[in-house]
C-alpha cells in the first residue's frame, strides 16, 4: 500500500468515526445512554454492529468519544475565556439542542454508581470549576463585588449554566437561556451595598 493509499484509508476511517460519533450523539439524545444500543447507532450509519465495533470496540469507548468531541466543540484557548464569551457560548448552545440534550441526559445518568461516564464528568467538573475560578479572578480579582472568592463563586456559575440548560430543554418557549445568563451576570457584578 502506498503512502497516498494509506492516507486516504486513514482519512476515510476518521470520517467514518466522526459519522459514528454524530449518530451516537443523536441516539443518546433520543434514548439516553442506557437506552442507546450499538445496534441502533450502527443502523443509523449503515453499518453492521460488527462494523461499528471495528471503530469503537465497546459502548463505553463510543460514549467517551462523544463526550470528548462535545468538549472539543466548546473548547476555548486557555486564558481566553471571559464572562462575556460565556454568554455567547450559551447563545451557541441554544442553536444546538441535540448536543445540549445529549450532554444533559448523560450528566443526569452519570450520577448513578457504576455509570461509565461518572469519572469523566467528575474530572470534567473539577476542571470546569477551576477554569471558571480563573475567569472570575481575571474579571474581578481576588473578591467578587459580593465578597465571595472566585473559588466559592465558580460552582455557582457552573450550576447556573447547567441549570438553565435543563430548564430550557424542558420548556424552550419560556426559558431564554442567553437572556437569563446575561441577567445572572448583571447580578454577579452588582455589589451588596
Automatic annotation (TrEMBL):
Residues 37-56 bind DNA. It comes from the Bacteria. Keywords: DNA-binding, Repressor, Transcription, Transcription regulation. PROSITE patterns: HTH_TETR_2. Transmembrane segments: none annotated. GO terms for molecular function: DNA-binding transcription factor activity; transcription cis-regulatory region binding. InterPro entries: BetI_C, Homeodomain-like_sf, HTH-type_TetR-like_transc_reg, HTH_TetR, Tet_transcr_reg_TetR-rel_C_sf. SUPFAM superfamilies: Homeodomain-like, Tetracyclin repressor-like, C-terminal domain. Residues 14-74 form the HTH tetR-type domain. PANTHER family: HTH-TYPE TRANSCRIPTIONAL REGULATOR BETI, HTH-TYPE TRANSCRIPTIONAL REGULATOR RUTR. This is TetR family transcriptional regulator.
Amino acid at each position: 500500500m502506498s503512502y497516498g493509499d494509506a492516507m486516504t484509508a486513514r482519512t476515510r476511517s476518521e470520517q467514518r468515526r466522526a459519522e459514528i460519533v454524530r449518530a451516537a450523539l443523536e441516539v443518546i439524545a433520543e434514548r439516553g445512554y442506557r437506552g442507546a444500543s450499538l445496534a441502533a447507532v450502527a443502523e443509523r450509519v449503515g453499518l453492521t454492529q460488527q462494523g461499528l465495533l471495528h471503530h469503537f470496540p465497546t459502548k463505553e469507548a463510543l460514549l467517551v468519544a462523544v463526550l470528548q468531541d462535545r468538549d472539543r466543540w466548546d473548547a476555548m484557548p486557555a486564558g481566553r475565556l471571559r464572562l462575556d464569551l460565556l454568554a455567547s457560548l450559551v447563545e451557541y448552545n441554544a442553536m444546538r439542542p441535540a448536543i445540549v440534550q445529549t450532554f444533559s441526559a448523560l450528566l443526569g445518568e452519570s450520577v448513578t454508581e457504576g455509570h461509565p461516564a461518572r469519572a469523566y464528568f467528575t474530572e470534567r467538573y473539577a476542571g470546569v470549576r477551576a477554569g471558571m475560578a480563573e475567569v472570575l479572578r481575571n474579571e474581578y480579582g481576588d473578591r467578587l463585588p459580593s465578597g465571595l472568592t472566585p473559588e466559592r463563586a465558580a460552582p455557582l456559575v457552573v450550576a447556573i449554566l447547567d441549570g438553565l440548560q435543563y430548564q430550557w430543554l424542558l420548556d424552550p418557549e419560556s426559558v431564554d437561556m442567553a437572556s437569563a445568563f446575561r441577567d445572572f451576570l448583571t447580578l454577579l457584578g452588582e455589589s451588596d451595598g
